[in-house]
Amino acid sequence: MKILLVILLFTGLFVLPLAVLVFYTVAPGWTYPQLLPPAVSGRSLEFLARRRTEVLVSLASSFTYSALTVACTLGICLLPASVFARHEFRGRRFLESLALAPALVPAITFSVGIHFLFIKVGLADRLAGVVLVLTVYSYPYMLRALVAGFLAFGPEHDLCARNLGAGPLRRVIRVELPLLLPAVAAGGTVVFLVSFSEYFLVFLIGGGAVPSYTGYLFPFLNSSDRSVASLLTMVFLAVPVLLFLCVDLLVAAAYRRRGMLEGRG
Amino acid sequence: MKQGAALALKLSPLAVPLGAVFFTGILMAVMQSLGLLLPPPAGAPGPAGGSTGAGAGPLGAYRALFAGAWFLQDLGFSLYCAFTSAVLSVAAGTMLAYLVWRSPRRFQQVAILSKIPLILPHIAVAFIVLMLFGATGYLSSVARALGIIGSSSDFPRILYGGGAGIILAYIYKETPFTMLLVTAVLKRFDFRRVDTALMLGAGRLTVFFRVVCPHLVPVLHTTFIILFLYSFGAFDIPFMLGESRPAMLSVQVYDLYFRRDLANRPQAMAILVLMFLFSILFIFLYTRMSERLDIAGRRV
User: Residues 10 to 49 of A: which have CB under 8 A from any B CB?
Assistant: First the structure.
């Protein structure tokens, strides 16, 4: 009985709002004060088919800068995370909390100021500028995940590889990164999601010159055509869901392969 | 010493986002709030400008902010929305995470539904709130069908004035976030402690507040700081659900920065500087306070 209540509670809280989106998508004529959609039609789907180039271009652009942001945050955080996890020194706690500041302090406080500077150095309205500002905003999530990842295994693997004569680069690629894979996947997922769904920073630094799906979606959300807005929101949900499925499968596959290799040895 | 240099070198990649962008951006805001490094006005080039609007002196922008009533009203409104949504999200998220944790394992899968708002972008969450709670939204339709209201104008104006729309949107988005963090802690909590307490005759509420809650306190503090500061300064949701008076500070900054003339820029930047200082002060004081409470609690 209690279980049923929990399930009902979750459905009501999290699924019902989404169900309204689905209804609006398939029933464009649905207006106040009808309780149920009057008739089903594919008008919003036709709209999507007609505008598919614009939608795909903005999706591809959002995907590109989000994926680049994940790569940048990984590159920036790998070495500092190993220091925070493996070494104890004076000021470590202070430095670690300072490094997390960009995710805690409202992003608007630094981004408006940096926008002015980006205009001067030619980074505004460019993909590079968008990736840079998103990296600043989201790298703390990657840093946290990687520190936790490094703490999950000791320094022995690295030491062992070093004793066997592996160089620094090789140790990172062959020893540490495979062990860090779950942490990279976790941090990368959050960074991707944060970048992909950000509206303000992309709109501010990208200035409309860098297409983004959030920027494409925004005018529709404010328009009176709720059907198209609902459908475009559903499309929005599809991309991260598909991506997470792929990441999960890839991580699982990587582990299976390594498991087999270990078994052979 | 040599090791110190090696560590510094390994930490140096952080200098790019933290130094070159984050602190530089704040520094730019400070400079422009003081009337320095401003772009020349497009209409009137030359040194004769002598910009006014912000008032005289380097602190003129700050003085102008505190001279009018709107800034303090907006500040109060931002704090109110941020505080209410953060407290309610933390409470709701903790409750739901606890309910799921107490359920049999095979039913715990239901928690995956709570991932939906995590994936939805903020502007889409605002859109959903608009569709559900607007004057001609779905709840209004339901109320009319039930005969509670006669027409859409009888439906309470939830979205405009009072910030309820903004708070609702944040709660929908942030409750699952709380669940995520609380569930991570609960997973490490030994369920047998609950069984022991129940066997010793503790009631359900006692079990929650006296046995489980003390272990959740640190993560609840962290979650509250994150959610409070995010809602305090975020732009997307208030911009979509646009309330103009009083407005969230972030929307006010946007208006001053983009929609009005250049003379207002020092004031926009001064708001940003004050928001930054407030955030830092809040983190500092809150962590100090929660640590002290924690120590006091342990002594008992």
Answer: 10-11, 13-15, 17-18, 20-21, 24, 31-35
